[in-house]
Amino acid sequence: MVPFVAEPTLAAVSSRVPHLTAKLQGFGTTIFAEMSALASATGSVNLGQGFPDTDGPREVLDAAIAAINGGLNQYPPGPGMLVLRQAIAAHQQRFYGLEYDPDSEILVTAGATEALAGALIALLDTGDEVVVLEPMFDSYAPCIAMAGAVAKPVTLRPPHYGFDPDELRAAIMPKTKLILFNSPHNPTGRVFTRDEVRLIADLAVEHDLLVLTDEVYEHLVFDGAEHVALASFPGLRERTLVISSGGKTFNTTGWKIGWLCGPAELITAVRTAKQFLTYVNGGPFQPAIATGLGLPDSFYRELAADLQAKRDRLLPGLVDAGFTVYPTSATYFVTVDIRPLDPSGDGMDFCRKLPHRCGVVAIPTEVLYMNKHEGRHLVRFAFCKKLDVIDDAVARLQKLAR
Ligand SMILES: Cc1ncc(COP(=O)(O)O)c(C=O)c1O
Protein backbone atom coordinates (compact mmCIF):
# COMPACT_ATOMS: atom_id res chain seq x y z
CA MET A 1 0.00 0.00 0.00
CA VAL A 2 1.22 3.49 -0.79
CA PRO A 3 0.50 5.93 2.04
CA PHE A 4 0.58 9.19 0.12
CA VAL A 5 -0.15 9.26 -3.57
CA ALA A 6 -0.64 12.56 -5.34
CA GLU A 7 -4.35 13.26 -5.50
CA PRO A 8 -5.72 14.48 -8.82
CA THR A 9 -2.70 15.35 -10.88
CA LEU A 10 -1.82 18.19 -13.17
CA ALA A 11 -1.01 15.94 -16.09
CA ALA A 12 -3.62 14.45 -18.35
CA VAL A 13 -4.62 11.08 -16.96
CA SER A 14 -2.09 8.75 -18.49
CA SER A 15 -1.38 5.06 -18.33
CA ARG A 16 0.95 3.65 -15.71
CA VAL A 17 4.61 4.36 -16.44
CA PRO A 18 6.76 1.30 -15.62
CA HIS A 19 9.37 1.83 -12.88
CA LEU A 20 8.09 5.32 -12.04
CA THR A 21 7.47 5.83 -8.34
CA ALA A 22 3.84 5.87 -7.17
CA LYS A 23 4.31 9.49 -6.12
CA LEU A 24 4.82 10.54 -9.74
CA GLN A 25 2.38 8.23 -11.51
CA GLY A 26 -0.11 10.32 -13.45
CA PHE A 27 2.14 13.28 -14.10
CA GLY A 28 2.85 12.00 -17.62
CA THR A 29 4.73 14.07 -20.20
CA THR A 30 4.35 17.80 -20.03
CA ILE A 31 1.86 19.25 -22.49
CA PHE A 32 4.44 21.87 -23.48
CA ALA A 33 6.61 19.20 -25.10
CA GLU A 34 3.62 17.76 -27.00
CA MET A 35 2.40 21.14 -28.20
CA SER A 36 5.84 22.47 -29.18
CA ALA A 37 6.44 19.28 -31.22
CA LEU A 38 3.05 19.81 -32.88
CA ALA A 39 4.00 23.42 -33.64
CA SER A 40 7.13 22.41 -35.51
CA ALA A 41 5.49 19.43 -37.24
CA THR A 42 2.69 21.65 -38.61
CA GLY A 43 4.64 24.90 -39.13
CA SER A 44 2.32 26.62 -36.69
CA VAL A 45 2.82 29.88 -34.82
CA ASN A 46 3.68 28.72 -31.31
CA LEU A 47 1.75 30.74 -28.73
CA GLY A 48 1.93 27.76 -26.38
CA GLN A 49 5.12 27.80 -24.34
CA GLY A 50 5.94 31.09 -22.61
CA PHE A 51 9.30 32.28 -23.84
CA PRO A 52 10.12 35.54 -25.62
CA ASP A 53 11.40 35.50 -29.20
CA THR A 54 13.67 38.53 -28.79
CA ASP A 55 16.89 38.98 -26.83
CA GLY A 56 17.08 40.91 -23.60
CA PRO A 57 19.20 43.99 -22.86
CA ARG A 58 22.56 44.23 -24.63
CA GLU A 59 24.36 45.06 -21.36
CA VAL A 60 23.19 41.79 -19.85
CA LEU A 61 24.25 39.70 -22.86
CA ASP A 62 27.61 41.49 -23.03
CA ALA A 63 28.21 40.88 -19.32
CA ALA A 64 27.76 37.12 -19.88
CA ILE A 65 30.12 37.16 -22.85
CA ALA A 66 32.68 39.12 -20.82
CA ALA A 67 32.36 36.64 -17.95
CA ILE A 68 32.96 33.68 -20.28
CA ASN A 69 35.93 35.42 -21.91
CA GLY A 70 37.15 36.43 -18.48
CA GLY A 71 37.38 32.82 -17.33
CA LEU A 72 34.39 32.63 -14.99
CA ASN A 73 33.61 29.15 -16.27
CA GLN A 74 34.04 26.90 -13.23
CA TYR A 75 31.73 26.10 -10.32
CA PRO A 76 30.51 29.30 -8.68
CA PRO A 77 30.22 29.33 -4.85
CA GLY A 78 27.38 27.17 -3.43
CA PRO A 79 25.13 30.09 -2.38
CA GLY A 80 25.77 31.88 -5.69
CA MET A 81 28.30 34.56 -6.66
CA LEU A 82 28.51 37.40 -4.16
CA VAL A 83 28.04 40.02 -6.88
CA LEU A 84 24.67 38.48 -7.75
CA ARG A 85 23.57 38.03 -4.15
CA GLN A 86 24.41 41.68 -3.53
CA ALA A 87 22.45 42.72 -6.63
CA ILE A 88 19.43 40.65 -5.51
CA ALA A 89 19.56 42.30 -2.07
CA ALA A 90 19.78 45.77 -3.65
CA HIS A 91 16.85 44.94 -5.96
CA GLN A 92 14.63 43.78 -3.06
CA GLN A 93 15.47 46.96 -1.18
CA ARG A 94 14.95 49.21 -4.21
CA PHE A 95 11.58 47.86 -5.32
CA TYR A 96 9.99 46.60 -2.08
CA GLY A 97 11.96 48.14 0.79
CA LEU A 98 12.89 44.63 2.00
CA GLU A 99 16.35 44.09 3.54
CA TYR A 100 18.14 40.75 3.00
CA ASP A 101 21.69 39.91 4.04
CA PRO A 102 23.52 38.70 0.89
CA ASP A 103 25.61 36.30 2.99
CA SER A 104 22.92 34.44 4.91
CA GLU A 105 19.52 35.36 3.47
CA ILE A 106 19.89 34.85 -0.30
CA LEU A 107 20.44 31.66 -2.29
CA VAL A 108 21.00 31.50 -6.05
CA THR A 109 19.34 28.54 -7.80
CA ALA A 110 18.93 26.91 -11.21
CA GLY A 111 15.94 29.05 -12.14
CA ALA A 112 12.87 29.60 -10.03
CA THR A 113 12.10 25.96 -10.80
CA GLU A 114 14.95 24.72 -8.60
CA ALA A 115 14.15 27.32 -5.96
CA LEU A 116 10.63 25.86 -5.78
CA ALA A 117 11.81 22.24 -5.81
CA GLY A 118 14.54 22.86 -3.23
CA ALA A 119 12.18 24.72 -0.91
CA LEU A 120 9.39 22.15 -1.15
CA ILE A 121 11.75 19.21 -0.64
CA ALA A 122 13.52 20.96 2.23
CA LEU A 123 10.47 22.19 4.12
CA LEU A 124 7.83 19.47 3.68
CA ASP A 125 7.52 16.16 5.48
CA THR A 126 5.47 13.22 4.28
CA GLY A 127 1.79 13.98 4.68
CA ASP A 128 2.16 17.74 5.15
CA GLU A 129 -0.39 19.78 3.23
CA VAL A 130 0.28 22.72 0.95
CA VAL A 131 -2.43 25.25 0.08
CA VAL A 132 -1.94 26.42 -3.48
CA LEU A 133 -3.95 28.44 -5.97
CA GLU A 134 -5.06 26.67 -9.15
CA PRO A 135 -4.53 26.86 -12.08
CA MET A 136 -0.86 26.65 -11.19
CA PHE A 137 2.60 26.56 -12.77
CA ASP A 138 3.20 23.00 -13.88
CA SER A 139 6.08 22.12 -11.53
CA TYR A 140 4.19 22.85 -8.29
CA ALA A 141 2.14 19.67 -7.98
CA PRO A 142 4.90 17.21 -8.98
CA CYS A 143 7.37 18.87 -6.60
CA ILE A 144 4.88 18.74 -3.74
CA ALA A 145 4.33 15.07 -4.59
CA MET A 146 8.09 14.39 -4.72
CA ALA A 147 8.31 15.84 -1.22
CA GLY A 148 5.66 13.28 -0.15
CA ALA A 149 3.24 16.10 0.68
CA VAL A 150 -0.30 16.79 -0.49
CA ALA A 151 -1.44 19.79 -2.53
CA LYS A 152 -4.77 21.39 -1.55
CA PRO A 153 -5.89 23.63 -4.41
CA VAL A 154 -8.02 26.74 -4.10
CA THR A 155 -9.54 27.49 -7.50
CA LEU A 156 -9.34 30.88 -9.19
CA ARG A 157 -12.34 31.38 -11.44
CA PRO A 158 -12.85 33.62 -14.49
CA PRO A 159 -13.54 36.27 -15.46
CA HIS A 160 -11.41 37.93 -12.76
CA TYR A 161 -9.67 34.91 -11.26
CA GLY A 162 -9.92 36.11 -7.67
CA PHE A 163 -10.04 33.54 -4.87
CA ASP A 164 -12.99 32.99 -2.56
CA PRO A 165 -11.76 33.91 0.96
CA ASP A 166 -13.98 31.23 2.50
CA GLU A 167 -12.55 28.55 0.21
CA LEU A 168 -9.08 29.69 1.14
CA ARG A 169 -9.86 29.57 4.87
CA ALA A 170 -11.48 26.14 4.49
CA ALA A 171 -8.42 24.74 2.71
CA ILE A 172 -6.21 25.42 5.75
CA MET A 173 -6.27 22.32 7.94
CA PRO A 174 -4.25 21.10 10.94
CA LYS A 175 -1.80 19.39 8.56
CA THR A 176 -1.24 22.53 6.48
CA LYS A 177 2.43 23.47 6.64
CA LEU A 178 2.80 25.96 3.85
CA ILE A 179 1.01 28.31 1.46
CA LEU A 180 2.41 28.43 -2.06
CA PHE A 181 1.41 31.74 -3.60
CA ASN A 182 2.05 33.15 -7.08
CA SER A 183 1.51 36.76 -8.07
CA PRO A 184 1.56 37.99 -10.79
CA HIS A 185 -0.10 34.72 -11.65
CA ASN A 186 0.55 32.25 -14.45
CA PRO A 187 -1.60 31.43 -16.43
CA THR A 188 -4.36 33.91 -15.52
CA GLY A 189 -2.36 37.17 -15.69
CA ARG A 190 -3.90 38.15 -12.34
CA VAL A 191 -2.06 40.62 -10.10
CA PHE A 192 -3.47 40.08 -6.62
CA THR A 193 -4.54 43.26 -4.89
CA ARG A 194 -3.17 44.60 -1.62
CA ASP A 195 -6.29 43.40 0.21
CA GLU A 196 -6.04 39.91 -1.25
CA VAL A 197 -2.35 39.65 -0.40
CA ARG A 198 -3.10 40.94 3.11
CA LEU A 199 -5.62 38.15 3.61
CA ILE A 200 -3.03 35.52 2.64
CA ALA A 201 -0.56 37.20 5.01
CA ASP A 202 -3.08 37.30 7.89
CA LEU A 203 -3.99 33.64 7.45
CA ALA A 204 -0.32 32.61 7.36
CA VAL A 205 0.29 34.42 10.65
CA GLU A 206 -2.94 33.18 12.26
CA HIS A 207 -2.16 29.53 11.41
CA ASP A 208 1.62 29.85 11.80
CA LEU A 209 2.32 28.70 8.23
CA LEU A 210 5.40 28.97 6.08
CA VAL A 211 4.94 30.84 2.80
CA LEU A 212 6.55 30.43 -0.60
CA THR A 213 5.81 33.32 -2.92
CA ASP A 214 6.66 32.88 -6.59
CA GLU A 215 7.21 36.34 -8.07
CA VAL A 216 8.95 35.56 -11.37
CA TYR A 217 6.61 37.96 -13.22
CA GLU A 218 7.15 40.78 -10.70
CA HIS A 219 8.14 43.28 -13.41
CA LEU A 220 5.72 42.19 -16.14
CA VAL A 221 2.74 44.15 -14.85
CA PHE A 222 0.45 46.35 -16.99
CA ASP A 223 -2.15 49.12 -16.79
CA GLY A 224 -0.51 50.70 -13.75
CA ALA A 225 -1.26 47.64 -11.59
CA GLU A 226 0.99 47.23 -8.55
CA HIS A 227 2.86 44.05 -7.68
CA VAL A 228 2.46 43.71 -3.92
CA ALA A 229 5.31 41.92 -2.13
CA LEU A 230 3.82 39.41 0.32
CA ALA A 231 6.96 39.47 2.49
CA SER A 232 6.41 43.16 3.24
CA PHE A 233 3.35 42.50 5.45
CA PRO A 234 3.77 42.38 9.25
CA GLY A 235 4.86 38.97 10.47
CA LEU A 236 5.60 37.67 6.97
CA ARG A 237 9.28 38.34 6.40
CA GLU A 238 10.28 35.78 9.04
CA ARG A 239 8.10 33.00 7.56
CA THR A 240 8.40 33.70 3.83
CA LEU A 241 10.71 32.63 1.05
CA VAL A 242 10.49 34.97 -1.94
CA ILE A 243 11.27 33.24 -5.23
CA SER A 244 12.15 34.98 -8.48
CA SER A 245 14.45 34.61 -11.45
CA GLY A 246 16.13 36.53 -14.24
CA GLY A 247 14.51 34.59 -17.09
CA LYS A 248 11.34 36.64 -17.56
CA THR A 249 12.78 40.02 -16.64
CA PHE A 250 15.81 39.85 -18.93
CA ASN A 251 14.47 37.58 -21.71
CA THR A 252 16.97 34.92 -20.67
CA THR A 253 14.74 31.96 -19.88
CA GLY A 254 17.45 29.57 -21.10
CA TRP A 255 20.01 30.76 -18.56
CA LYS A 256 18.05 29.48 -15.56
CA ILE A 257 19.33 31.90 -12.96
CA GLY A 258 16.86 32.06 -10.09
CA TRP A 259 16.97 32.86 -6.38
CA LEU A 260 15.32 32.77 -2.99
CA CYS A 261 15.32 35.48 -0.33
CA GLY A 262 14.25 34.76 3.23
CA PRO A 263 15.32 34.45 6.84
CA ALA A 264 18.65 32.68 7.38
CA GLU A 265 17.08 29.58 8.98
CA LEU A 266 14.81 28.94 5.99
CA ILE A 267 17.58 29.68 3.49
CA THR A 268 19.90 27.26 5.30
CA ALA A 269 17.24 24.56 5.11
CA VAL A 270 16.73 25.07 1.39
CA ARG A 271 20.48 25.19 0.74
CA THR A 272 20.77 21.75 2.34
CA ALA A 273 18.42 20.30 -0.29
CA LYS A 274 19.61 22.47 -3.17
CA GLN A 275 23.28 21.49 -2.78
CA PHE A 276 22.37 17.90 -3.64
CA LEU A 277 20.13 18.83 -6.59
CA THR A 278 22.33 20.90 -8.91
CA TYR A 279 24.87 22.14 -6.31
CA VAL A 280 25.45 25.23 -8.52
CA ASN A 281 24.74 26.41 -12.07
CA GLY A 282 25.26 29.06 -14.70
CA GLY A 283 28.58 30.56 -13.50
CA PRO A 284 29.07 33.25 -16.18
CA PHE A 285 25.36 34.09 -16.28
CA GLN A 286 25.29 35.04 -12.62
CA PRO A 287 27.25 38.32 -12.93
CA ALA A 288 25.25 39.07 -16.09
CA ILE A 289 21.95 38.86 -14.21
CA ALA A 290 23.55 41.05 -11.52
CA THR A 291 24.13 43.65 -14.24
CA GLY A 292 20.50 43.38 -15.29
CA LEU A 293 19.16 43.83 -11.77
CA GLY A 294 21.05 47.11 -11.58
CA LEU A 295 19.51 48.57 -14.76
CA PRO A 296 17.67 51.89 -14.30
CA ASP A 297 13.93 52.20 -13.68
CA SER A 298 13.45 53.17 -17.34
CA PHE A 299 14.43 49.64 -18.38
CA TYR A 300 11.77 48.11 -16.14
CA ARG A 301 9.14 50.57 -17.38
CA GLU A 302 9.92 49.86 -21.03
CA LEU A 303 9.90 46.12 -20.44
CA ALA A 304 6.34 46.25 -19.11
CA ALA A 305 5.19 48.76 -21.76
CA ASP A 306 6.57 46.61 -24.58
CA LEU A 307 4.78 43.53 -23.33
CA GLN A 308 1.57 45.47 -22.70
CA ALA A 309 1.63 46.56 -26.36
CA LYS A 310 1.96 42.90 -27.38
CA ARG A 311 -0.95 41.96 -25.17
CA ASP A 312 -3.01 44.75 -26.71
CA ARG A 313 -2.22 43.41 -30.17
CA LEU A 314 -3.25 39.83 -29.43
CA LEU A 315 -6.38 40.34 -27.34
CA PRO A 316 -8.59 42.03 -29.98
CA GLY A 317 -7.58 39.31 -32.44
CA LEU A 318 -8.76 36.64 -30.02
CA VAL A 319 -12.05 38.50 -29.51
CA ASP A 320 -12.52 38.78 -33.30
CA ALA A 321 -11.80 35.08 -33.71
CA GLY A 322 -14.79 34.42 -31.42
CA PHE A 323 -13.32 33.47 -28.05
CA THR A 324 -14.50 34.85 -24.73
CA VAL A 325 -11.31 36.60 -23.63
CA TYR A 326 -10.56 37.18 -19.96
CA PRO A 327 -8.68 40.24 -18.73
CA THR A 328 -4.97 39.90 -18.02
CA SER A 329 -2.87 42.58 -16.39
CA ALA A 330 0.48 40.81 -16.09
CA THR A 331 2.77 37.97 -17.25
CA TYR A 332 3.09 36.58 -20.77
CA PHE A 333 -0.38 35.08 -20.89
CA VAL A 334 -4.06 35.50 -21.63
CA THR A 335 -6.76 32.88 -21.08
CA VAL A 336 -9.88 32.38 -23.17
CA ASP A 337 -13.07 30.33 -23.00
CA ILE A 338 -13.40 28.27 -26.18
CA ARG A 339 -17.10 27.45 -25.83
CA PRO A 340 -18.43 30.14 -28.19
CA LEU A 341 -16.34 28.41 -30.89
CA ASP A 342 -16.56 24.86 -29.65
CA PRO A 343 -19.63 24.03 -27.56
CA SER A 344 -18.07 20.72 -26.47
CA GLY A 345 -15.78 22.85 -24.28
CA ASP A 346 -12.98 20.30 -24.59
CA GLY A 347 -9.87 22.49 -24.47
CA MET A 348 -7.46 19.57 -24.81
CA ASP A 349 -9.09 18.36 -28.02
CA PHE A 350 -9.41 21.94 -29.29
CA CYS A 351 -5.67 22.60 -28.78
CA ARG A 352 -4.67 19.32 -30.43
CA LYS A 353 -6.74 20.26 -33.51
CA LEU A 354 -5.97 24.00 -33.62
CA PRO A 355 -2.61 23.66 -35.46
CA HIS A 356 -4.31 21.61 -38.18
CA ARG A 357 -7.32 23.93 -38.40
CA CYS A 358 -5.47 27.24 -38.56
CA GLY A 359 -1.75 26.87 -37.80
CA VAL A 360 -1.62 28.21 -34.24
CA VAL A 361 -0.57 26.42 -31.05
CA ALA A 362 -2.05 27.20 -27.61
CA ILE A 363 -2.08 25.35 -24.29
CA PRO A 364 -5.17 23.71 -22.76
CA THR A 365 -5.31 25.27 -19.32
CA GLU A 366 -6.86 22.08 -17.95
CA VAL A 367 -3.34 20.70 -17.46
CA LEU A 368 -2.66 23.40 -14.86
CA TYR A 369 -5.61 22.34 -12.65
CA MET A 370 -5.97 19.47 -10.21
CA ASN A 371 -9.76 19.84 -10.48
CA LYS A 372 -9.71 19.30 -14.24
CA HIS A 373 -13.35 20.24 -14.82
CA GLU A 374 -12.64 23.80 -13.63
CA GLY A 375 -10.29 24.44 -16.55
CA ARG A 376 -11.60 22.07 -19.21
CA HIS A 377 -12.96 24.83 -21.47
CA LEU A 378 -10.07 27.26 -20.98
CA VAL A 379 -7.07 27.78 -23.21
CA ARG A 380 -3.93 29.89 -22.71
CA PHE A 381 -2.19 31.96 -25.38
CA ALA A 382 1.25 33.58 -24.90
CA PHE A 383 1.83 37.10 -26.22
CA CYS A 384 5.58 37.43 -25.46
CA LYS A 385 6.29 37.33 -29.21
CA LYS A 386 7.30 39.86 -31.88
CA LEU A 387 4.39 41.99 -33.13
CA ASP A 388 4.58 40.50 -36.63
CA VAL A 389 4.40 36.98 -35.16
CA ILE A 390 1.32 38.02 -33.17
CA ASP A 391 -0.21 39.58 -36.30
CA ASP A 392 0.41 36.37 -38.21
CA ALA A 393 -1.25 34.32 -35.45
CA VAL A 394 -4.22 36.71 -35.33
CA ALA A 395 -4.69 36.47 -39.11
CA ARG A 396 -4.61 32.68 -38.91
CA LEU A 397 -7.09 32.60 -36.02
CA GLN A 398 -9.63 34.57 -38.04
CA LYS A 399 -10.27 31.33 -39.95
CA LEU A 400 -12.06 30.09 -36.83
CA ALA A 401 -14.51 33.01 -37.01
CA ARG A 402 -15.35 32.12 -40.59
C1 LIG B 1 4.89 31.00 -12.25
C2 LIG B 1 6.23 30.48 -12.67
N1 LIG B 1 7.11 30.10 -11.74
C3 LIG B 1 8.32 29.62 -12.06
C4 LIG B 1 8.70 29.50 -13.38
C5 LIG B 1 10.05 28.92 -13.70
O1 LIG B 1 11.00 29.90 -13.79
P1 LIG B 1 12.48 29.55 -14.26
O2 LIG B 1 12.48 29.48 -15.75
O3 LIG B 1 13.30 30.67 -13.72
O4 LIG B 1 12.84 28.24 -13.66
C6 LIG B 1 7.82 29.88 -14.39
C7 LIG B 1 8.21 29.72 -15.81
O5 LIG B 1 7.41 29.75 -16.70
C8 LIG B 1 6.54 30.37 -14.04
O6 LIG B 1 5.64 30.72 -14.96
Give the arrangement of secondary structure elements.
Elements (H helix, E strand, L loop, with lengths): L30 H12 L2 E2 L11 H12 L12 H15 L9 E5 H13 L5 E6 L5 H7 L3 E6 L9 H7 L4 E7 L11 H13 L3 E5 L25 E6 H4 L7 E5 L2 H11 L10 H9 L3 H25 L2 E2 L7 E5 L9 H12 L1 E2 L1 E2 L7 H4 L2 E5 L4 H15 L1
Parallel strand pairs: 1-11, 3-4, 3-5, 5-6, 6-7
Antiparallel strand pairs: 2-8, 7-8, 9-10, 10-13, 12-13
Helix pairs in contact: 1-12, 2-10, 3-10, 4-5, 4-9, 11-14
Bound molecules: pyridoxal-5'-phosphate.
Can you offer a commentary on this structure?
The protein has 402 residues and is α/β, with parallel strands linked by helices. It is globular and about 60 Å long. The protein has helices at 31-42, 58-69, 82-96, 111-123, 140-146, 165-171, 194-206, 246-249, 264-274, 285-293, 297-321, 347-358, 372-375, 387-401, and strands at 45-46, 106-110, 129-134, 150-155, 176-182, 210-214, 240-245, 257-261, 324-325, 333-337, 360-361, 363-364, 378-382. The longest helix is centred in the C-terminal third of the chain and has 25 residues, at 297-321. Helix 3 (82-96) packs parallel to helix 10, helix 4 packs across helix 9 and helix 11 runs parallel beside helix 14 (387-401). It has a seven-stranded mixed beta sheet with strand order 2-8-7-6-5-3-4, sandwiched between helices. Strands 9-10-13-12 form a four-stranded antiparallel beta sheet. It is 40% helix and 14% strand. The chain has 14 helices and 13 strands. Pyridoxal-5'-phosphate (PLP) is lined by residues 50, 111-113, 137, 182, 186, 214, 216, 245, 247, 253, 256, 258.
